[in-house]
Write a structure and sequence with these properties.
Blueprint (H helix, E strand, L loop, with lengths): L12 H9 L10 H32 L5 H24 L11 H21 L5 H32 L1
């Protein structure tokens, strides 16, 4: 997206790298309708990827148990990095989710799946001590804290907007 779309925004190394990874300089993006439809399709695919990775990791730790932990954690780590890069790219271009009205009908199933995932990870951990046990406990506690922060921020933003 060289040129006019982000001319007013600082294009630091991160934005330039993201534009290369996303192939945003492609002629495909010049036509507005194509760009809008592709952006919407990408958002649908991204949300589906988030849900499927959470559900797959949850099922794996409950069905397979301890042997699934490293794979579930690696998969969630990859998806987490992709989500963080997505958020960081938008923020670098001046777009944040702050103040967005959170749909409780969408948030509650997410909270339920993450809760089941955390419980499954804690149940499946092979031992409390050692790297695997510590990692699973840390992932569980960290997920719980992140989930609590998301809920608190959503409640705060909802109160501010009403």
């Amino acid at each position: 997206m060289s040129g006019s779309r982000h001319a007013t925004t600082s294009r630091d190394w991160f934005v330039r790298a993201a534009e290369i990874i996303g192939d945003l300089g492609s002629p495909f993006y010049r036509e507005e309708r194509q760009r809008d439809v592709w952006n919407e399709a990408s958002a649908v695919g991204f949300q589906l990827m988030l849900w499927l990775s959470l559900v797959a990791a949850t099922v794996a730790v409950w069905v397979v148990g301890a042997p699934a932990l490293p794979y579930a954690q690696a998969g969630l780590g990859i998806v987490g990095v992709a989500a963080l890069v997505t958020i960081a790219y938008a923020q670098r271009l001046g777009v944040t989710m702050r103040g967005a009205d959170v749909s409780w009908s969408r948030l509650l199933p997410y909270v339920a799946v993450v809760g089941l995932l955390v419980a499954g990870m804690l149940r499946a951990q092979p031992e409390r001590d050692g790297f695997s046990g510590g990692f699973a406990t840390g992932a569980g506690v960290g997920s719980g804290i992140a989930l609590a922060v998301i809920v608190v921020l959503a409640l705060r933003d909802r109160r501010r907007s009403h």
